[in-house]
Design brief:
Blueprint: H1 9-17, H2 28-39, H3 55-66
Helix pairs in contact: 2-3
């Protein structure tokens, strides 16, 4: 499995649902697509994110906007 103390628990949960826990280089768009499913904010997350982006930063930013 994929384990890293630098990852928040919910991020690990999202990646496990996508079966990408063994791929730490998964494009952020994949993770955000999962967030879209969980949060229902499809309009906000419609934009695809370049794989070069830091997906943890993207998720943190989006989660702060959802608060």
């Amino acid at each position: 499995g994929f384990q890293s103390e630098s990852l928040p628990d919910d991020t690990i949960h999202i990646r496990e649902e996508l079966h990408t826990e063994d791929d730490p280089t998964a494009p952020s768009s994949v993770v955000l697509s999962s967030m879209k499913i969980h949060t229902g904010t499809s309009e906000m997350l419609d934009t695809q994110v370049e794989p070069s982006h830091n997906y943890l930063e993207e998720i943190t930013l989006l989660k702060s906007q959802l608060q």
